[in-house]
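JOB MANIFEST
job_type = single_chain_structure
chain_count = 1
residues = 433
[input]
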Amino acid sequence: MDNDFDLGTMISEGISERDKKHIWHPLTQHKLHPTMLGIKKAKGALLYDESGKEYIDGIASWYTCMYGHCNDYILDKVHQQMQKLDQVVFSGFTHEPAVRLSEELIDILPGNQQKLFFSDNGSTATEIGIKMALQYHFNRGEKRPVLVAFEEGFHGDTFGAMSVSGLSVYNGPFEDFFISVERLPVPNEKNIEHLLKFLETRLAKGDIAGFIYEPLVQGAAAMKMHDAKHLDRILGLLKKNGVLAIADEVMTGFGKTGSFFASDRMLNKPDIICMSKALTAGLMPMAVTSCTQDVYDAFYSDDIGKGLFHGHTYTANPLACTAALAGIELLKSNEIQESIHRITEAHKSFDKEIKNHSKVASTRQCGIIYALDLDVKMERYGNLRDQLFKHFMDNGVFLRPLGSTIYISAPFTISDKQLHKIYDTIKSALEAL
């Protein structure tokens, strides 16, 4: 045995200290934030750190573990699948979990969706949606190199996804390499008529391939919300002009907005839908990009070059598909649907109590997603924001403020007691500001 290797010393140092030696974390400037909190286990709506302290997971670990951490039903289903088939190449092969998942997803997706393309995460789901839109027109002999996206949208960290995202704090060093994207303000009562007139003029050029959007809620933009009726009018106009609508439901999908998908709230359905996060209940990484038969048919050809040549090693992993199947079963259950209603109503009650607080500038809600803006000037990743985060963690609540915005997107399985502790901790934070 190598004398330099001492397992006992390594373990005694603790997870957080060992982490510092080799790991580079996402969205982190390590010189400013060198220490990560070591999490030892999780169950339900609770996280436990290496010292044994518990935290209520108020954001379902980036909107993934919507049925609670380590859900026994999902774990049991995946354990059974592990005994049969763990992984197999998905090019030239298929398997029962993927086929069953395709059937179950089509059953809950908007009715115009017909085909599913599997990948690994939210960024790849949107990347594939973007490629579908651009190649759709290319395969049809049309030159449409431009994409349209909302201002302040966020669609992921791969190059196509970054191109259509509007948050330069993430994208600055790479903007010279982006594909062609034009941005629209999010629609509201004041600007919708002007937006529609502008689009009518702009669409006359005939060079726009697709419109990518987060329906109803822009997550990384601090849970900014817009009305379904205004978005529906924009979608209707774009679709009349042959522009493919790409709904990024990576964050909004699977019950968070009160319906299975945010797109259910519009009459004009997307041509392409991007899914991940809660798709697999937080247990396994996987993504799906769905599309209409019309989109698929543009790639269906005797010409091999018209195929969608995109693939990932763990595409449609059988274990991830099984986790997704179990999650969908739970989502459709009376218990989870009643819980979604319970959380939605609890947020409404909390909103009545907090919205007129002197330090609250505005509040908003969509399903189980609740957000409030502080009437305090604050940088997105500044010191005051860090103090706010520390207050929550010191009180055993994991909330991750986006600048001056505090938001909740907790697991559907959170208890009333846990939910009210989140509310109480937010109230105490307001008093401490």
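[summary]
Residues 334-354 form the longest helix (21 residues).
The radius of gyration is 22 Å.
exit_status = 0
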